[in-house]
Amino acid sequence: MESYTIEPIGRVESPLIDRGQAPRQGDEGAPEAWLVFEERVLEGLRDLREGDEVIVLTWLDRASRDVLSVHPRGDASRPRQGVFSTRSPDRPNPVGLHRVGVVAVEGARMRVRDLEALDGTPIVDVKPVLDRDTER
Amino acid sequence: MESYTIEPIGRVESPLIDRGQAPRQGDEGAPEAWLVFEERVLEGLRDLREGDEVIVLTWLDRASRDVLSVHPRGDASRPRQGVFSTRSPDRPNPVGLHRVGVVAVEGARMRVRDLEALDGTPIVDVKPVLDRDTER
User: Fold this and answer.
1) Least CA distance to A55: which residue of chain B?
2) Going by C-beta distance under 8 Å and a sequence separation of 6 or more, which residues neighbour residue B129?
3) Which ranges carry the TsaA-like domain (chains A, B) (predicted)?
4) Pairwise CA distance, residues B118 & B17, whole Å
5) For residue B25, which of A80, A96, B12, B112 sits 20 to 30 Å off, Cα-Cα?
6) Exposed, middle or buried, B16 (CB in 10 Å: 0-12/13-18/19+)?
7) Residue B120: alpha-carbon gap to chain centroid
8) How far apart are CA B64 and CA A96, in angstroms?
């Protein structure tokens, strides 16, 4: 099957520097972080404002891509689960999904709260949160 | 900045064959569709069941990647908006995000409802819906 190329649009700047530090969920104590975008995508950001809730997609560049099942939360006493039923970073295409609140926008830099991504993580996309994501 | 390669894990089989037909949101009348996975990722699917709500990530392979602003809903009378404040398929890295309900699982094929992706769209990933996606 044909493959496709992701060209990151920016990087995360965060105090989280390794996977041992990263919380399992954004609201379990993830810090604030900066999204530092490339100048070439500035026009795409122009309607984002402080107070917005957005979904940030990242490329989890330190993940293992040859993993199809994991012990939930890394706990070896729990039975393995297929990765598509988990949010493990280890999976064939390690795209991270992060719902965050925008705290500030300064040109091509955006400060967000509750981002569980590691420092240096490439940013793939940013999307608004829609009702269809949350209501069913 | 370094680029990354997505190797699709499967494809969408849908009655939607062009963008003119596709509804803007999954719950505005999107049909049921099949997710047809590659046999190599079958182990990753083993805990998905009928009744699950999942997020399907796709690669919107018919999108334009050089677009940074769009008229909302394609309506030229509305002012342009930066793509990162919209769900337009046209954006630098056209990853689609679809919240769907699983209707049936048959080996490497999974039937889902309310999928707005076009026939043939490559599948990037499948993730469970978590509370943090919906509650804030």
Assistant:
1) B133
2) B53, B54, B55, B99
3) 6-136
4) 5
5) A96
6) buried
7) 11
8) 22
CB contact under 8 A, A125 and B93: yes
Which 8-state DSSP code applies to residue B80? P
Domains of chain B: 10-130 (2.40.30.70)
Instruction: Flag whether residue B54 sits within 8 Å of chain A, measured between CB atoms.
Output: yes
Are B25 and A126 a contacting pair at CB < 8 A? no
For residue A69, which residues of chain B lie inside 8 Å, CB to CB? 43-44, 46
- For residue A59, the chain B residues in CB contact (below 8 A) are 4
pLDDT tens readout for residues A78-126? 999 999 999 999 999 999 999 999 999 999 999 999 999 999 999 999 9
DSSP 3-state of A113: strand
In sequence order, the 6+-apart residues with CB closer than 8 A to the CB of A2 are B8, B122
> Which amino acid, residue A16?
L
What is the predicted pLDDT for the residue at B11?
A: 98
